[in-house]
Amino acid sequence: MAKIFEVDLKRPRIMAVAEAAATIRTGGLVLYPTETVYGLGADACLDEAVAKVFAAKARPLEDPIPVAVNSLELAQQIAELTPTAELALKKFLPGPLTLVVKAKPKKISKLLTKGEFRP
């Protein structure tokens, strides 16, 4: 069942954020605002959750979708970063930045890697 929460970035509602996080942790989907559009998010580590994003967007599995991170540390855990990518992340996070990087094996859903790490 869908729930809608009003978002005020200057005064976030802690319960709304906690409920969104719980939804993501249990494989659900969350629609969230970005600087330009709304994003549809899920746990990038769960195949079933990522499959729901592709299905909801009617997007072919061959078309990649971005993975959002909020810190350099999280990016380092899931991706192979060049020194230039690390500098960009240090400068712009948290904030709007898109990088195309190689995922580390078995750190995120295989659906996000276009099958590169499938056994």
TrEMBL record:
Catalytic activity, EC: 2.7.7.87
The keyword Secreted is annotated on this UniProt entry: no
The family this protein is said to belong to: Belongs to the SUA5 family.
GO molecular function per UniProt: ATP binding; double-stranded RNA binding; L-threonylcarbamoyladenylate synthase; tRNA binding
Gene Ontology biological-process annotations: regulation of translational fidelity; tRNA processing
Catalytic activity: L-threonine + hydrogencarbonate + ATP = L-threonylcarbamoyladenylate + diphosphate + H2O
Protein name as annotated: L-threonylcarbamoyladenylate synthase
Residue intervals of the YrdC-like domain: 14-119
UniProt entry keywords in alphabetical sequence: ATP-binding, Cytoplasm, Nucleotide-binding, Nucleotidyltransferase, Transferase, tRNA processing
One GO location term (cellular component): cytoplasm
Main location as per UniProt: cytoplasm
Subcellular location: Cytoplasm
